[in-house]
Amino acid sequence: MQPLEDKDDMYANLPPILAMVIPILAIVMGIGYAMLATWLRYQRRKEVYEMHHRERMLAIERGMEVPPLPPHVFSDFDHKAAVEFAEVASRAGYFIRSPLRRALVWILGGIALLVALYLNYGPTTAAWALIPIAMGLANLGFYLAEARSRPSGPGNPEPDGKPKSPGATPF
Prior knowledge:
single chain; about 170 residues; mainly alpha; 6 helices
C-alpha cells in the first residue's frame, strides 16, 4: 500500500500528459465530426436519388410521363430549407434586423466588457473592449446615415425594414 505522500507525486505528471492529449483529441474529434457530416450528407443524397429512381421506374412501368428531377437534387445547398428556416427565425425574432438595435447591443456589450475588464485586470486589458464599442459606433453611424438619406413618410419603410404606419409615434 502506498503512503499518502506518494499519491500527490502520482498527479505531478498529469499536466504534461493533458497538454498532449487535449490537442490530439480536439484534432481527432474535429476530423471525425467533418467525416460524419460528409457521410450523413452522402447517405441523405443517396436515399433521395434512390427514391427518385424508384418513383421514375414506377412511372415508366405505368406508362406515365416522367417528370425531370428538380434542380435542388443536384446541389449541395437546400435553398428551400434555408428560406423556410430564415422565415421561421425572423418570425421568432432571432435575427437582429435593425442597425440601431445592433449598434446598441455592440455598444452596451462593449461598455459592460470594458467595466468588467477594468475592474478585474486593469486599464491595459480593458482597452480591448474598445473593439466592440467601435463596431457599435460604426453600426450607429450606418443607421444615422441611412436614416438621413431615406425620406421618411407613410409609404417609406424605416431603416429597420418595417413599414412605418401613418399614425405611429417614434417611441
